[in-house]
Amino acid sequence: MSVAVAERSAAPPQHALRPVISFHGVSKVYPNGTEALRDVDLAIHQGDFCFLVGPSGAGKSTLVRLLIRDEAPSTGRIFIDGQEVSRMSHRKLPKLRRKFGIVFQDYKLLTRRTVAQNVAFALQVTRPGQRHLREKVEEVLWIVGLEDKLDKFPDELSGGEQQRVAIARALVHRPRIFLADEPTGNLDPDTSWGIVQLLLQINHRGTTVLMATHNREVVDLVRRRVIAIDNGRVVRDEAEGSYLREGTATL
Amino acid sequence: MRQVLASLWFALHSAGQNFRRNLGVSLAGVFTMGLIIFLVGGSLLFTHSVDTVLQGQEQNASHLKIYLSDNASLAAITNFESRLKDDPRVISVTFETKDQAKQQASQNPSISSALAVLGSNPLPASLNLDVRKLTYLSQFNAEAKAMPIVDSTTPTDYNSDVIGKLNTVITVIEWVGAIIAIILLTISIVIIMNTIRTAVYSRRTEIEIMKLVGATDWFVRWPFILEGMLGGLLAAIFSGAVVFGAYRLFVQAAQGNLLSVPFDARYTITLLIVLLVGGVAVGAFGSFLGVRRFLSA
Ligand SMILES: Nc1ncnc2c1ncn2[C@@H]1O[C@H](COP(=O)(O)OP(=O)(O)O)[C@@H](O)[C@H]1O
Ligand SMILES: [Mg+2]
Questions:
Q1: Which of B206, B214, B219 sits opposite A95 (nearest CB)?
Q2: Which end of chain B is more exposed for a tag (fewer CB within 10 A), N or C?
Q3: Where do the domains of chain B lie?
Q4: What is the pLDDT of residues A208-242, one digit of tens each?
């Protein structure tokens, strides 16, 4: 891997007055009756790196969707940057979403566009007429280590490279919070490790990172904050945790 | 400015791309829309032609005699006559004296002998009106009744029966035309809506990304609305040309026969403009509905 291993910051993060993300008694019941989250309380501070772990169906993706207000909570309140998003009007959503960079297990790349065009797209549709577009695109592609793949099409790249393009696209508007929902779900262990290092590097530059995953090896190797969800409940929240509860076989 | 131009370029570019990528669906949509615009334009022109012909009939039917009371003063009559002359609904007014009425009636031999038996002249003087529209007759009839100088027993020769029937025919034709136009309009909105849904579907990843990175709803919407407007415009241009050609042929054919339908250039131009604007508006509205479901999430 060409990306350097991010240093683990020795000092505990300097917690600002208020968390950048906070959940207060949040529950989510889908229209079909599924209770995906139950009474969740959370606080994540600027500059934190957090793993959100739990088995498939635990409610990780639901939590991510609530953050970007793709879904609204059934009860409880969610604040981003001190702004309540749980009752935010539809009109304000674009501005909220520009605070986030987000990637998923499927890379959601546009197959008819080149790597550079895929990344540029994010700026073209949010800040049309942006100056120095090319430089900005090249800069983020350099950060993710794809500076030599600018004019390739997504299907000419490996899975790991495609995820890097998605990460570059999510980074290009300089988000405050980076969300990754199972970003390594389709990747082999080595490639996964590279992606996680990239996320650590992004965090090292000051961006808050929340990564939902059920990739046990990665979580255990990195030893950062771990929030474990099971059956819609937060069952554990540790500063330097592992995938499973220390010395047990359970979350 | 730079931002506006970039947005416009993005929207136009995407609209063109949509149109080409779903060329089959787009062309089918344009064709169906064109057919509908042709039907709307055609039926409007047909209704207009029938109207014109019927209005010719109306001219004959739109005479009204207002009978004057025998003791009405000449001054009052002249006053009433000049008021009628100034009325925009009136084409012409003529005054008919009792003697003229008797002469006129005497042309019928049986009336003539009856008048001879009576000795005196029972026929009233009248003001004879020519009005512009059939519907004005009932209005003048009502107004005449209220005038003191008008004969109170038989105020006018208004025959509501015949006139009413002719009126009904015209109204029915106009309504049927309007209802057909509304139905066709609704159908074309649905067609555009579905064409745009296909375009939206083929771009779902793109829209998903746009929403994720924080593009505004209008930014997502514009390309599709432009695409709908483009389709509506193309459909209107083609069908407008066909309607125009068909109308000319129809007028020529009609002139060969007894029925003479005049070629109404002003109406035709107005109609073509209405079809163009309507096509574009229907395209925009159909697209708006087509993307709406996708954006509300
Ligand atoms: N749109 C939805 N409608 C109904 N149920 C859903 C929906 N999305 C997720 N669920 C359910 O909510 C629960 C949590 O799902 P999810 O948040 O996707 O879990 P995870 O990401 O941890 O695998 C699951 O039981 C899932 O079936
Ligand atoms: Mg999930």
A1: B214
A2: N
A3: 2-57+167-295, 63-132
A4: 999 999 999 999 999 999 999 999 999 999 999 88
**CATH, residue A123:** 3.40.50.300
Between chains, do B6 and A124 touch, taking CB under 8 Å as contact? Answer: yes
Contact B205 A110 (CB under 8 A): yes
- B82, burial (CB in 10 Å: exposed 0-12, middle 13-18, buried 19+): exposed
Domain count along chain A: 1
Instruction: For residue A170, list chain B residues with Cβ-Cβ distance below 8 A.
Output: 213
Contacts of B7 in chain A (CB under 8 A): 128-129
Asked if the structure places residue A209 within a domain, the reply is yes
Is A139 part of a structural domain of the chain? yes
Measured in residues, chain B has a length of 297
Nearest residue to A59 via CA among A82, A28, A13 = A28
Condensed to tens digits (0 to 9), the pLDDT of residues A112-163 reads 999 999 999 999 999 998 889 999 999 999 999 999 999 999 999 999 999 9
Q: Which residue has the higher pLDDT, A87 or B57?
A: A87
ipTM: 0.89
Number of A/B CB contacts below 8 angstroms equals 61
Q: Between A90, A108, A125, which is nearest B219 by CB?
A: A125
CA angle B175, B179, B183 (to 5 degrees): 170
Domain that holds residue A185: 46-71+90-238
The model's pTM is 0.75
Chain A residues closer than 8 Å to B210 by CB? 125
CA pair distance B11, B223, nearest whole angstrom: 4
**Separation CA B102–CA B96 (nearest Å):** 10
